[in-house]
Backbone:
């Protein structure tokens, strides 16, 4: 609703010229400009007050202190849980032959190798 494009502004200016006339149009434009400037100033002041009210100074101070502490360290230490994990990693043996690997993929049981 608040978006005005070039054609809309042109129509408004032509209507203002017709209604106000060429003598009063510059003064009216000046007054509109002052009103828009004042509205923007009030809006930005209100927004800043709302931001200030929403920010907790204690949280901001804690975040700043953490940032200082982290900026001094290159990398955080690795967790001790990973280094002392007692669970062994199972080893996987490679397939004995091409038949065995193909049978495992097909879902069939591998045929026993002939004994000599």
Residues:
């Amino acid at each position: 609703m608040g978006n005005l494009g070039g054609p809309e502004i042109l129509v408004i200016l032509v209507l203002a010229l017709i209604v106000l006339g060429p003598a009063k149009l510059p003064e009216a434009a000046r007054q509109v400009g002052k009103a828009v400037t004042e509205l923007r100033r009030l809006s930005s002041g209100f927004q800043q007050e709302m931001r200030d009210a929403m920010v907790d100074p204690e949280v901001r101070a804690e975040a700043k202190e953490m940032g200082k502490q982290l900026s001094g360290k290159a990398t955080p230490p690795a967790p001790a849980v990973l280094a002392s994990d007692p669970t062994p990693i199972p080893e996987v043996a490679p397939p004995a032959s091409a038949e065995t690997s193909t049978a495992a993929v097909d879902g069939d049981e591998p045929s026993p190798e002939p004994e000599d």
The mean pLDDT is 76. The chain is about 65% helix and 0% strand. The two ends are 90 Å apart (CA to CA).
